[in-house]
């Protein structure tokens, strides 16, 4: 069945960062988009907050009124561009000039999507759109939710592939936990013995994108259920030693803005990985713009012996950028904590 957002996603594929998302990431992007059809003279009011917002004008024209200026935009002029609305502003008022179609996406939601998409590509373990969709199992695993992006990437990189025929017990109730599993293909059943008897009861079914096994690893206990392959299945698994190492030892190196400023004054180069529209609105003096979706292609512009700091809107894109830079043998790289959202020093604007 065609979703309501499919037509919007088709249109948005001409705009950043949708033009650089994988198939599965683009599919998930529909959950983050709000669209508004407004008629001539109608107004749309968006309230500012601690995170920035992006607007996409897909049809018609609008006047965008903000506290410091009014911008008149047309869909033709905005083709392939986003309109950046910084954090902490007063409400943004959008008035239609004729009929207009406007899409709104919260930067925090989109940053999360872009960052995970870049990590999935970098890990090299997802070969098809269906396998990329299984990344959801890692994103939603309790143990991984609060980890730095680099730790999650390292977990993905260390995962091994396993196939099992129908009827195979992947884990058995009562045994010590020895691995975390992520389902790529197939269907599995969760069977659990009752408290007062040994009869197994079907408790749940699992499919692609579902993960299991982390609870016994986190609690250092035994398996609380048996997970059995109901069909032939393909799994990714991460062993206990790797799980313990990555959950217990964050890999990200971050610095607060005050330290970052001192490092810049002493020779570190500040790389800004936001989109061009965000950079034009406000950026730190001397920073070098390389949007995250372009970073792989432009890594050759960076000196492996150089000293770098990476900044974005709030930190997620910068964490992934730092990971990609280290893969490119750039060892001296750190992320500016809180990004431009928390940058307290002088900024420049190109507008």
Keywords:
351 residues, Jelly Rolls, 12 helices, Oxidized Rhodanese, domain 1, alpha+beta, 3 domains, five-stranded parallel β-sheet
- Per CATH, the architecture of the largest domain is Sandwich
Q: Please tally the β strands and state the result.
A: 19
Helical residue percent band: 25-40%
**What integer is the average pLDDT?**
86
For the record, the count of structural domains works out to 3
Please, how many helices? 12
Describe the structure.
This protein has 351 residues and is α+β, with helices and mostly antiparallel strands. Helix content is 28%, strand content 30%. It has 3 domains: 104 residues, Jelly Rolls (Sandwich), CATH 2.60.120; 125 residues, Sandwich (Jelly Rolls), CATH 2.60.120; 89 residues, Oxidized Rhodanese, domain 1 (3-Layer(aba) Sandwich). The chain has 12 helices and 19 strands. Helix 6 runs antiparallel to helix 8. The protein is globular. The mean pLDDT is 86.
Short characterization:
Helices cover 28% and strands 30% of the residues. The chain is of the alpha+beta class and 351 residues long.
């Amino acid at each position: 069945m065609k979703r309501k957002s499919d037509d919007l996603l088709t249109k948005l594929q001409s705009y950043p960062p949708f033009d650089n998302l994988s198939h599965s990431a683009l599919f998930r992007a529909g959950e983050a988009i709000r669209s508004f059809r407004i008629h001539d003279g109608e107004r749309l009011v968006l309230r500012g907050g601690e995170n920035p917002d992006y607007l996409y004008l897909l049809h018609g024209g609008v006047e965008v009124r903000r506290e410091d200026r009014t911008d008149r935009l047309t869909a033709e002029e905005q083709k392939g561009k986003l309109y950046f609305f910084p954090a902490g502003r007063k409400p943004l008022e959008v008035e239609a000039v004729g009929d207009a179609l406007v899409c709104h996406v919260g930067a925090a939601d989109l940053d999360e999507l872009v960052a995970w998409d870049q990590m999935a590509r970098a890990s090299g373990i997802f070969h098809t759109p269906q396998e990329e969709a299984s990344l959801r199992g890692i994103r939603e695993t309790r143990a991984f939710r609060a980890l730095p992006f680099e730790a999650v990437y390292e977990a993905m990189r260390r995962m091994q592939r396993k196939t099992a025929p129908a009827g195979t017990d992947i884990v058995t109730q009562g045994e010590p936990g020895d691995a975390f599993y992520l389902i790529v293909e197939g269907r599995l059943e969760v069977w659990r013995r009752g408290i007062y008897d040994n009869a197994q009861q079907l408790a749940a079914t699992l499919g692609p994108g579902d993960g299991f096994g982390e609870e016994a690893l986190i609690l250092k206990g035994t398996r609380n259920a048996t997970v059995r392959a109901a069909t032939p299945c393909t799994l990714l698994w991460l062993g206990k030693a790797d799980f313990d190492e990555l959950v217990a030892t964050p890999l990200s190196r971050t610095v607060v803005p005050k330290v970052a400023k001192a490092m810049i004054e002493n020779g570190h180069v500040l790389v800004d990985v936001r989109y061009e529209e965000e950079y034009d609105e406000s950026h730190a003096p001397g920073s070098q713009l390389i949007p995250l979706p372009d970073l792989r292609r432009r890594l050759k512009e960076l000196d492996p012996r150089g000293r770098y700091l990476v900044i974005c809107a709030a930190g997620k894109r910068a964490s992934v950028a730092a990971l990609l830079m280290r893969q490119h043998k750039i060892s001296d790289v750190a992320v500016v904590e809180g990004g431009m959202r928390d940058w307290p020093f002088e900024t420049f604007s190109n507008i």
